[in-house]
């Protein structure tokens, strides 16, 4: 098996898995908050937030990567601040790759959650309120469990996107073997060389297999949840 | 008739000038599709309607030649380039490439050396070759940040994210935020050559307009436009660089 | 004590209602679409009225003029919804627990075991609402609201989906909630029998407006208010108390002492002296002349005809009882003619024991 | 003619029911959770039973052995759901139109105008279900099902959310559907009064099993079946027809001729000769001895005591009427003793006109 | 205004709008069919279809573009067949750019629709069946109107993605001015020239503005639809 793919490809796969998982998990709470705000909120700046969330989808990935570089690079205002106060370095690190992946997947995650939230019957939330539950509690115990399939769908979309993200990642954190060379970067590299088609195909296959597994698992999970709720 | 040119993206500024000049004097409309050489070569393999292909590296031209997709007689080495070491403009002290720790010293504790992908993108491949030749590669290998293409590597230096980068002289020339701090000796790497050729479709002869534009490029006033961007304008007509 | 003043416009419908609800149970009664649910929604804090003021036991819950709108979760008002609204992702046990979660520690009220027992939902505890029948859902919804130990309990047609047997089982317990714990209730029902047993106050709602509101007996016995009621529902309410056990032996009858005389009634258990209310439907009262044959109707009270009003296709006869109180009798015009009834006439009112159960 | 045999296991509940439903209305009556909705779901094609056979007018709809399961949309069975299920994205008009869309061209049935008028939903036509009150929703759901001109109409507690007045308005029309168009119905209700007016056949369901099924009058008058019923619901059904208008003038009373004698009843309009059914609740019957005083009760029929059975806290007396038919009277043991009632004893049964309306 | 952006950028914008609109509109029916099949279907190959739909999300865009080139190029089996039998040329044409954009947006569109379909109460569909409506009619008159917000959400996601899609497009149909040089390709091209930051920023801004407008409009629409259904 190790001969089938060069060892560096396995390294890249491991890194991609780490990056995608971290990106997905870390962006979940913020995505949920955004989805809630967008689905239920009535505040000034709602439109602006909506736009901001969609940006990574609309901009060519390299532009997003470039903007990330400007903001989160070592010399970037946020990057410098993070490094000095929290000791978090993103530039040229796998953490930066995770940030890029998280940002690219963010609109997908928020949309899925938001759709699910909008499908929740607000009358159930009203019922919870009459039972004395304050708003945050209602969200945690009624809204959240009901949108679990949506959260899973959003997470798996973001994960899949993270597994395939390349443009923003390489622009922001470059391609450093073992640190930021994710599977898509490795694939891209191979694509630049004539005659590497087989290696490309193999790596793509592995990437696809992993992401599809995630899709399948999440689908099964969310169906199970939905079935339990519907009761049949 | 229209002339469609598939050209490596890094040629954009230079080629845009040359085509503008040509169109001022001729009726033919020229469209140029700029993308990565590998992408363009693969598209030509799949029957893209290109009349002229200008590659950023000879190997993709070789591939097309092997597939009999170019007119071998028309192939010429159009331009050459020089490989340079750049640093942010604010930090422009020259670097002595002969010294073993010249690079590592300048990079500091955790600074990165920005390059294009060292295994696949031509600028990266040349750079790795040169560093190896100079005995510097082993010292910096772990410090290299590989960008998608040479322009992205340039951007890393321009933004101050990387204290050093290896790019083409043409790139350094165009970006005021960087300074050239060293030039790699010509013999430290294979010659940097941008070959051009007419594309043939299923053995059909190339459009005469395309042939005359290509000739004009290699002989005409366009040479000045190309040279102004920092390219090495190779002697014309250049000998085919096929080994 | 709940005070409600509301004005609210909806497309095609205007609510314009004011009533006071003294301690006890206030029933809101009115046609479909009369605005009953809208009123209780406002009380629960789920509807912000255009203009309105709602005060519960001195606490202002809603006051549009003063800009006060206490959020629903701080009102401590339990609500059994007309449409159920059980949490689909929780089991029955989880739904009950949700109700209990925010119940104030010290508040009086039944515990889970008591509620489960009462509502007969022990076998359903681990099921999800999607698997319950309509009536099962209604019972769980009642239980969930009870578990939150509310200061006021809103019941929006809580028993519409329940069968008579289940109703009969739950009603006494709602009565007990009312009488022993003093949980005030705002109750909506189409069934005047439930209303009569539960309500102390009756609000007749018509087309968004309060047509008549007041103590149950008064409103029910008001022939003028009767247009708002089903003919079969009109009647009087007699108050009395359980008298000493009857010497005639243990035949399951209870003797109720009222100012107008004693009545024998089936199946009202309780210690002597306990106050009871008897609804006597106008339809169940027979008017007889002085001399009577022997019948199975055990309850015969002397009475004086007070008024005779048409209520097509019948007429409504109001009877004054000598000891105080009134009865209504719904009889045919033909009987009025036969018996020569007229105000002031001395008659007997005959009521079956079975009709008083 | 509908024939149903079902065996179906659910977690915690087993349905094991078989009954025939002759033309007319079959009411299924049973406690909450007894399996009523599950049965009609199987009939409508929404539930595939583990084992079962359902045949409507000779067409096999479900036959698990033969692997037949006609899809719901080809069954032409209208269904008024317990939980409404109006289309939220369509107006009331749209919902009604949806029902009409697939109605076979030639099939008999009311048109939109008639349905709208009957159900009093004219003012709601452009509203969406989200803006309707509970009762309004129920009415629209009935209308929608009617518009599809079904071969069989399933009504799952269609009137639970309706007030008495609205119920009283809709019932006669369902009767008309039954009598004039002959639309057979499968009807679930908790209200035995509705059942008695509508049903020709009654199926008593208990815990997934049919306890008793048969012609309405038989089942209702069966004191043994009575345990499945609310005590107040037990009674007899007398069949008769409207007699010639009464000479006594136009006082709104209708004379109904029954084999046992004529009865005067309030407010049953109809041409002479029309067949009617009168439910006489056991609770509304007074037994009197031979000599009677003058009372407002116009209907007095001679009868013979057939049986006396305990039904705590009362007793049930079965009375044979001379011309045929039976009555039930629910009276106290004390009255039995007073009057010295025993099988074979000649008595009079007194029924108020008002109780028969 | 014309001076603010070079004329070719306006051409690229017009092309991007055309490509994105066509991509979105043309993929709607197929996306809906896939979403229905995935949400409600019980067939063999459901998992495979699910995976296939997700592929463009998982694969690095250049790989997707390369696969498109292999399949739909002039020499590709499908491309050649399309050209000979239907006279449709995709290779190096704006139609090919639309195909690439459609494929890249497809998983987003399908997911949004599928979430919406899964939130539809099947009891309403059962009710429609009892009224005599055959399954396709039920879908068209009950399911579809109820998932309108989800369809809109899916369409706008796909449109936004199409406005930003670059990797697959340039790999499949190259970067031919006036034919396949979409706004993201123009941005990429400009990025190749140092000192073009202002032009890049302006083009990105235009692209973002258009996509955000689409997002805002669709949001307003789907809210209106949802409000009408909820009835308040
Ligand atoms: N899918 C299911 N899984 C498990 N149990 C179920 C399911 N559906 C219904 N039940 C149970 O089957 C029993 C019968 O349900 P059904 O809905 O037929 O009752 P019903 O007679 O209509 O009651 P109601 O009058 O309260 O509506 C109930 O105990 C219910 O909890
Ligand atoms: N959001 C709304 N917009 C417009 N009309 C509404 C709205 N909500 C309710 N209505 C209308 O207001 C009236 C009162 O509704 P409400 O639900 O209070 O009636 P109800 O007395 O509870 O009726 P029911 O006994 O049928 O439940 C109805 O005519 C209803 O159609
Ligand atoms: O579309 Mo992108 O090109 O890397 O995600
Ligand atoms: Mg209501
Ligand atoms: Mg039911």
UniProtKB/TrEMBL annotation, chains A, E:
InterPro entries: MetI-like, MetI-like_sf, ModB_ABC. Keywords: Cell inner membrane, Cell membrane, Membrane, Molybdenum, Transmembrane, Transmembrane helix, Transport. GO terms for cellular component: plasma membrane. Residues 13-218 form the ABC transmembrane type-1 domain. It is a multi-pass membrane protein. The keyword Isomerase does not apply. Pfam families: BPD_transp_1. Belongs to the binding-protein-dependent transport system permease family. CysTW subfamily. This is Molybdenum transport system permease. It comes from Paracoccus suum.
From TrEMBL, chains C, D:
PROSITE patterns: ABC_TRANSPORTER_1, ABC_TRANSPORTER_2, MOP. InterPro entries: AAA+_ATPase, ABC_transporter-like_ATP-bd, ABC_transporter-like_CS, Mo/tungstate-bd_C_term_dom, ModC_ABC_ATP-bd, Molybdenum_import_ModC, Mop_domain, P-loop_NTPase. GO terms for molecular function: ABC-type transporter activity; ATP binding; ATP hydrolysis activity; molybdate ion transmembrane transporter activity. Keywords: ATP-binding, Cell inner membrane, Cell membrane, Membrane, Molybdenum, Nucleotide-binding, Translocase, Transport. Residues 294-357 form the Mop domain. The keyword Cell division does not apply. NCBIfam families: modC_ABC. This is Molybdenum ABC transporter ATP-binding protein. It comes from Paracoccus suum.
């Amino acid at each position: 098996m190790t001969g089938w793919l060069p060892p560096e490809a396995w390294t890249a796969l491991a890194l991609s898995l780490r990056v995608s998982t971290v990106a997905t998990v870390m962006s979940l709470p913020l995505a949920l908050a955004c989805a809630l705000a967008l689905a239920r909120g009535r505040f000034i700046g709602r439109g602006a937030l909506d736009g901001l969330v969609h940006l990574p989808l609309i901009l060519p990935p390299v532009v997003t990567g470039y903007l990330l570089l400007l903001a989160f690079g070592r010399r970037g205002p946020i990057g410098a601040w993070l490094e000095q106060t929290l000791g978090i370095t993103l530039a040229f690190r796998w953490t930066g790759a995770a940030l890029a992946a998280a940002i690219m997947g963010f609109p997908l995650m928020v949309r899925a959650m938001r759709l699910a939230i909008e499908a929740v019957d607000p009358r159930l939330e009203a019922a919870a309120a009459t039972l004395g539950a304050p708003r945050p509690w209602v969200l945690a115990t009624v809204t959240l469990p009901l949108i679990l399939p949506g959260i899973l769908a959003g997470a798996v979309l973001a994960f899949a996107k993270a597994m395939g993200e390349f443009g923003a990642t390489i622009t922001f954190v470059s391609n450093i073997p073992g640190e930021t060379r994710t599977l898509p970067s490795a694939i891209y590299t191979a694509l630049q060389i004539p005659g590497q088609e087989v290696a490309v195909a193999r790596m793509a296959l592995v990437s696809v297999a992993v992401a599809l597994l995630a899709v399948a698992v999440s689908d099964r999970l969310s169906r199970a949840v939905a079935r339990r709720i519907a009761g049949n | 008739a229209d002339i469609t040119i598939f050209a490596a993206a890094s040629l954009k500024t230079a080629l845009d000038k040359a085509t503008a000049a040509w169109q001022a004097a001729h009726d033919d409309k020229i469209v140029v599709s700029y993308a990565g050489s590998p992408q363009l070569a693969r598209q030509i393999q799949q029957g893209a309607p290109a009349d002229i292909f200008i590659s950023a590296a000879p190997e993709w031209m070789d591939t097309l030649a092997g597939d009999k997709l170019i007119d071998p007689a028309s192939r010429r080495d159009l331009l050459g380039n020089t490989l340079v070491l750049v640093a942010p403009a604010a930090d422009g002290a020259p670097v002595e490439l002969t010294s073993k720790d010249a690079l590592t010293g300048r990079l500091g504790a955790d600074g990165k050396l920005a390059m294009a992908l060292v295994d696949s993108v031509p600028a990266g491949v040349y750079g790795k070759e040169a560093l190896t030749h100079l005995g510097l590669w082993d010292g910096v290998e772990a410090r290299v940040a590989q960008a998608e293409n040479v322009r992205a590597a340039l951007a890393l230096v321009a933004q101050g994210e990387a204290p050093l980068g290896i790019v083409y002289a043409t790139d350094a020339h165009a970006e005021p935020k960087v300074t050239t701090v060293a030039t790699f000796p010509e013999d430290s790497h294979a010659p940097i050559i941008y070959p051009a050729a007419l594309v043939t479709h299923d053995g059909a002869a190339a459009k005469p307009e395309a042939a005359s534009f290509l000739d004009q490029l290699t002989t005409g006033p366009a040479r000045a436009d190309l040279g102004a961007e920092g390219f090495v304008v190779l002697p014309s007509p250049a000998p085919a660089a096929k080994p | 004590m709940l005070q409600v003043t509301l004005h609210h416009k909806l497309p095609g419908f205007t609510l314009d209602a004011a009533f006071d609800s003294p301690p006890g149970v206030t029933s809101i009664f009115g046609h479909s679409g009369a605005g009953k649910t809208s009123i209780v929604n406002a009380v629960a804090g789920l509807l912000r009225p255009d203009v309105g003021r709602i005060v519960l036991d001195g606490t202002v819950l809603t006051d549009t003029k003063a800009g006060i709108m206490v959020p629903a979760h701080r009102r401590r008002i339990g609500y059994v919804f007309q449409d159920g609204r059980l949490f689909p992702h929780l089991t029955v046990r989880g739904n009950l627990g949700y109700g209990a979660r925010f119940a104030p520690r010290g508040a009086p009220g039944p515990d889970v075991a008591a509620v489960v027992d009462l509502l007969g939902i022990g076998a359903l505890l681990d099921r999800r609402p999607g698997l319950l029948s309509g009536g099962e859902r209604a019972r769980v919804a009642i239980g969930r609201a009870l578990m939150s130990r509310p200061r006021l309990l809103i019941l929006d047609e809580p028993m519409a989906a329940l069968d008579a047997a289940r109703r009969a089982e739950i009603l006494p317990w709602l009565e007990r909630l009312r009488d022993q714990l003093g949980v005030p209730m705002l109750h909506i029902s189409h069934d005047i029998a439930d209303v009569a047993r539960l309500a102390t106050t009756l609000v007749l709602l018509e087309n968004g407006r309060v047509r008549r509101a007041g103590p149950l007996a008064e409103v029910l016995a008001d022939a003028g208010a009767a247009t708002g009621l089903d003919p079969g529902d009109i009647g009087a309410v007699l108050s009395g108390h359980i008298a000493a056990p009857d010497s005639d032996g243990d035949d399951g009858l209870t003797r109720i002492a009222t100012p107008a005389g004693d009545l024998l009634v089936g199946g009202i258990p309780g210690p002597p002296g306990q106050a009871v209310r008897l609804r006597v439907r106008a339809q169940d009262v027979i008017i007889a002349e002085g001399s009577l044959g022997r019948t199975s109707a055990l309850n015969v009270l002397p009475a004086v005809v007070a008024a005779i009003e048409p209520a097509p296709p019948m007429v409504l006869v109001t009877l004054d009882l000598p000891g105080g109180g009134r009865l209504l009798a719904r009889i045919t015009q033909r009987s009025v003619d036969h018996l020569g009834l007229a105000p002031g006439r001395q008659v007997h009112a005959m009521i079956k024991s079975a009709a008083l159960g």
